[in-house]
Automatic annotation (TrEMBL):
This is Sporulation lipoprotein YhcN/YlaJ. Keywords: Signal. Residues 30-49 have a biased composition (Low complexity). Residues 30-53, 204-226 are annotated as: Disordered. Residues 1-24 form the signal peptide.
Length: 226
């Protein structure tokens, strides 16, 4: 009987030790799984805060139009290859930006399809960040907000950040939204505004008297000839 009791006691202890080992392994596995899950969650959250890649001008251009209602956005000039924006080339660069294509690396233009709508947003990639300031100044000095002949852009904005230069010639509110979005992409502290100017038609004349009557605005001898 004594031997039987000893045997049963030993068997009970062995089973207890086996159960403890199984529980510990399960707890370790659960802890490892939880740590991995936490790490994956942390990585996902980190990835969700990535900023716009400013090396891709199409991505930057897309982001410039964030928050603009579809009915407020002029229809853009369609491209033969189906792309949304027109590339700046040796043939169209000076007309659209005021500077030759040789002054920068690459560029895109979002141009209104109708010439009666003064809307043109251009992005230029300078040859280097060091050259961006000079490029922006040249664009500001030479870009023509009356390039449409019949109409003039209400507002002209030129700004740069890093090696990217923005030229916005458009309606006042659209130009403001585009500038705000450019600052949001690049960080406002990293953006330098070289030019922000309303058109002559939008500017308040000296004395603050604005007239919408074209006849009243004519010289007296000219109005009398009508």
């Amino acid at each position: 009987m004594k031997k039987l009791a000893i045997t049963l006691t030993a068997l009970t202890l062995a089973l207890a030790l086996a159960a403890c080992g199984s529980t510990a392994g399960s707890s370790s596995s659960t802890a490892s799984s939880g740590a991995a899950s936490s790490s994956a969650s942390s990585s996902a959250q980190s990835g969700s805060t990535e900023t716009v890649d400013t090396s891709d001008l199409t991505t930057v251009m897309d982001a410039l139009f964030n928050g603009i209602a579809e009915d407020q956005m002029p229809m853009l000039m369609p491209q033969e290859d189906g792309s949304k924006y027109a590339p700046l080339t040796e043939e169209n660069s000076e007309h659209n930006t005021g500077v030759a294509m040789s002054a920068y690396k690459e560029g895109l233009c979002a141009e209104a399809a109708m010439s009666a709508q003064a809307h043109s947003i251009c992005l230029l990639k300078a040859n280097s960040a060091e050259e961006a300031a000079k490029l922006a100044e040249d664009v500001a000095a030479n870009a023509n907000p009356r390039k449409w002949i019949c109409v003039e852009a209400e507002r002209t904005v030129v700004a740069y950040s890093g090696d990217t230069v923005l030229l916005a010639m458009s309606y006042n509110d659209l130009a403001q939204t585009v500038l705000d979005n450019f600052k949001a992409q690049c960080g406002e502290e990293n953006v330098t505004v070289v030019k922000d100017q309303a058109s002559a038609d939008m500017a308040m004349p000296e004395g603050g008297d604005v007239t919408s009557d074209p006849v009243a605005a004519m010289p007296e001898d000219a109005s009398g000839a009508l």
